[in-house]
Automatic annotation (TrEMBL):
Keywords: Signal. Residues 1-18 form the signal peptide. Pfam families: YhfM. Residues 47-135 form the YhfM-like domain. The lineage of its organism: Bacteria, Bacillati, Bacillota, Bacilli, Bacillales. InterPro entries: YhfM-like_dom. It comes from the Bacteria. This is YhfM-like domain-containing protein. The keyword Signal applies. The keyword Thylakoid does not apply.
């Protein structure tokens, strides 16, 4: 009887550990890229957002804004590019271009893959800008 209890506890432990390891493998993360000076079409990786709370904050902002359909032509290169990826190969990576307007505390975002655009409210702009740059928006 003790052997059966030991086997049962062992199998349950293995399934719990396997489930936890699968959960860890399906992490979403964001790479934050900034323009390369002198090259208007190139970006370089500046930061990597992978902390669970920060990822949830970025996801919440990007998923809860009211996107407008249509292409937008900006008059200058984006200040940031966010490249999001999930370690789950079945999900497609997404890319967003972000502009901070001079003298304003607002970000404008273009969701490149879906041809959508949004101008973020100040509150969300401040939070997102701080996560992207590590600085306060001015």
């Amino acid at each position: 009887m003790k052997n059966y209890a030991f086997l049962l506890v062992s199998f349950v432990s293995i399934f719990i550990l396997a489930g936890c390891s699968l959960e860890d493998k399906e992490k979403t993360f964001y790479d934050v890229l900034t323009p390369v000076k002198g090259d208007e079409s190139s970006f370089r990786t500046e930061r990597h957002i992978s902390k669970k709370d920060d990822v949830k904050t970025v996801q919440s902002i990007l998923h809860h804004v009211k996107w407008v359909n249509g292409k937008v032509q900006m008059n200058r290169q984006a200040d940031f590019m966010i490249y999001t990826s999930n370690s789950n190969a079945s999900e497609k990576a997404a890319s967003y271009y972000l502009w901070k307007q001079p003298g304003k505390e607002e970000l404008e975002i273009m969701y490149k893959d879906q041809n959508k655009y949004v101008k973020l409210p100040k509150k969300e702009s401040k939070v997102l800008y701080h996560l992207l740059s590590g600085k306060d928006i001015k």
